[in-house]
Amino acid sequence: MKLRPVVPAELPEELRKSPNLGVEVDAMSGGFVCSASFKAKLPPTAVRATILGGKPLRKLFSKEQRRFFAANAPEGVELDELSVLGPIFVLKLKWSPREFGRPLVAELWLYPDGSRILELSTKCTTTEPMQAAAEARAFLQQKGVDLSGEQQTKTKTALEFFAKELTAESALAETLTAGGATGRQ
Asked: Is this model's pTM higher than 0.90 or not?
């Protein structure tokens, strides 16, 4: 569960102390955005079983996540009313290049339409984000990685992709329903 954008200092102290809360900064050539996410481990088949079994979506989230959602969701939006979007095939690799000095994570998101996004990330303390970003940029350029391409976040791209798909499915269902009603007259 992710909240973006967020100002970490404005989050309640209880949330900031939770071991399940992570704060990250997505830095791109045009700027940056800070987000907070609440993570929880689920059994490998939990999402599929919940969806196929018709169970409420809230059952997939911990009590702590549900409180986080309730405190930050737009008024009137409930977890069980949300639509399930996906799936997206993600390849993830963690490694620590000796010449970089920090761990790196590469995520390749493969969307159903064949498009893809590669995200490279690293971690740092709260006092060194600009230094870490500069070091990462220099390291990637040394390795021949072209950093001039269009920058986009994987989550926003996924939401836009599946929202379009959901809208198309909804329009088709309305057309079929209207056509069925017309056909009976």
From this structure: no
